[in-house]
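Bench notes, bay 3.
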Amino acid sequence: MVLILFKSASLRALVLALFLMPSLSQASALYSPRGISGNYPDPIQACQANDPNGLYTNYYFPTLPTSGVSQYCRGLRIDNGLDQAIGLVDYVDGTCPSGYVDDGSGNCIVEPPPCESGNIKYLTGQPNTFPSSPISSGGCSYSYLYDPESPSRCVVNLSGETSCTFTYSGNGEASTTNDAGELPDSAPEIEGTTDNTKSTSETNVTEPTVITDPDGTVTTTENVQIINTAGTGTTINDTESNIIIKSGSGTISNQDKTITTVSSPDGTSTVVTSTDKTTSTPTVETTTINKITGSTTTINNAGSTTTNNVTTVNNYNSAGKLTGSTTTNSDGNTDAQGTDENGDKVYSLPSGKGSFDSATTAINSEIEQAKSDLLTAFEVIKSEASELVSFTASGSGSLPCPPPVSLEPFGTFELCLTPYEDDLSGVGLILVFVATFLGLAIILR
């Protein structure tokens, strides 16, 4: 009857919509303890309200109340631990109380705090987990912040993993995408190091095998394996604008040496040493984090492996003296040396195309050893001479001063050196110093 007062159909529709709007709006679920006034956004809160004296703990519902269906809430008696019903709780439709908001599905949740612009949070994780795009924490949007005074550091933690901490600043906007969870307001302290590289060495020696031939020749074979690893682990270099993280397998040097000694009945012997050396350069992963933009790049470099074999044959006479030596490399080069009739070493040119590196190294080593022996002998001579000769300018003697001689008719001739003792006392020290200097120069040149 009221609607006929409006001549316009559109006005009638508007009034009808306004009239029906309250009944079409979505209500939020609330829970009311039977016999106790008040509605609660959480059923457990309503159950707790049914226990004003605090006789129970561990509140729960076997089945939650629904529209038109009430349910008992239960709990454990504190005094005897029995599981008992506490009271009925009713389901009611209503509006979320202050401090709560509807999550869109009819449930009341705690209202999140407003998103503040400039609110600082810290994100910690692996180097490649830092997004340069905004992240969400607690329903608010945060963007990566470059701040030279804030912690933006990476360390290798105690478990051997690389862990980094970066700063994010609030945008003042709500967001639920790219959720990073709850982030701390202060930078966490992480125990670790920026260099956990290490080197290892392992030596394995096999039990020698001995074979004796019927003619008395004895062949002994043993194997020695040496494995050296250097630079395994992670290093972190924190520069002004980048953090550079390098993780590598390290350089591995594997030396497998087989020594075969053949001893003849006449006392002569031959020792063949065959050494296989394999060197593997590390596989390195380099991660660079730009501290200004937050972007991360990773580059992987594969290592390489080189192999080399060196076989050395040493011949000894019955007195155990080396009479000849031949060294052959895997490239085919052979260096040989022997001894002359006086027992001195004689070096020959390489039989293949190559260099004199091997022979030169051996000769230089012997020269340096000779220098060291001469220097030692000089020190022994100096020590023994110091007990007989004084190298200081002091002494108890005096220069001669004979009586004057009369040379008539020319007068008197006098040769007395005593007044010049102090002036001439340093001559001996100077002579000793010059001789010492020249001796050392000759030996060490």
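Next record in the batch:
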Amino acid sequence: MDNNISNELALFHLRKSLSIDANHIPTISLICEIYLINKKFDMIDDLIVNSIKRGLKSSEFHYLLAKKNLYCSSFEKAKFQIDQAINAEKNILKYYKLAIKILQNYNAEHLASPYLEMIIKLDPNDGNAYYLLSKLITQKENYKKKISLLEVTNDLISDHHQAQFDLAVSHMDTLHESNDSQNDYLKIKNMFSPLLRIDQYRPKVLYKLGELELIKNNFPEAIKLLEESTKHDETKGIASYKIANLKLLNEDFKSANLYFKKSFECEFRQAECSFNIALIHFQGEKPQRAFEEFKKAELLLNLEKKELEKKSKKSANLNDFDRARQLYTDSLNIRKLISKTHLYIHKINPPSSLDDQQKNLMKIIDLDFDNFEAHYELGIHYLSFKEIDKAQKSFEYACELNWEHINSHLQLARISLMKKKREKSKMHYQIVLDLEPNNKEAIRNTELLVN
């Protein structure tokens, strides 16, 4: 029998039943459920409003209105109604399950904890509730609870592959705290192993196994696994970016450039890729290519910063403060990268007037006060005007921000010597020698200062 015909037949009998007992709430509920299926939302409102006018009260009415509002994408109203239902009847499982659906559709899963905890209390065998609760835990200090929830999920749902994957990743994220890292490393590998046979999980498992080998400093095996991961569209971008950074660290600039380009093509961290490609050209003494790439990075970084700030505000408006804080921190990190980008553009193509150069450097520092290289460049600028005290202050900032910045220590040693502060000059030259034992200037002047 056609569903529409069977629904109409059911409605006929239910209405007949309601004509005999207009206050029979189960009948009202069933009629509303059929109206929901048929998308007759106004008729639900009429039926429930008329029932309330007759003095009927039921948590079911709030539940049905919440369902209706969910269907209509009126999430705030849906959330209000389901909370009303729960306040009226606190131990009805379907109310909490509907609340979770509403929050998921409203992008407000961060508010789901109390509802999920009640689902677990009312139905301890609901493995998915344990899993959803585990997803809400993002702070590393709470990972023991996260791991416990994922273990219960896997006990209750043996083929919940995402929970298996998340459990292995959570153990991996806490590996640095382990008292037996070698055994835990092998345990994590064994947890990932069955998922390698599942096509859907193979790419991200290969990537995570590559990261695991990096934690253990097994670089050749890590590169091999990450390379394998780049063969899959899902992980090509992130794996290429990871390999690029490893190559950059090892000063294999040609390979790093290639992998950053691959990552860019996959639209993964395009702004950061452009910045690093520009940096490689700059270090390779290709200023024009570096300048063009830095300008591209500047544009992309500003777009990314604005997007992160927008998302942060949106999360804050949804009371998801942990997420808002993380996004805002990400935007600040991008701001730091913008400051570095501006500095390299300044180095390649500085403004024509010395006054504009100073203003430009100060703007770069305003973007990120922790940019020690900008303080150093500003110090050099002040030296060109023989503003020794201002230059000294800039070099001191650079050293505070990066104690290993040799050039700043050299400048402070020279300024101290000029000001006849021999002990201070000797201290800075000694720091230079600690960092770079063969530095000729530091060797020569330290000997002079001692004698």
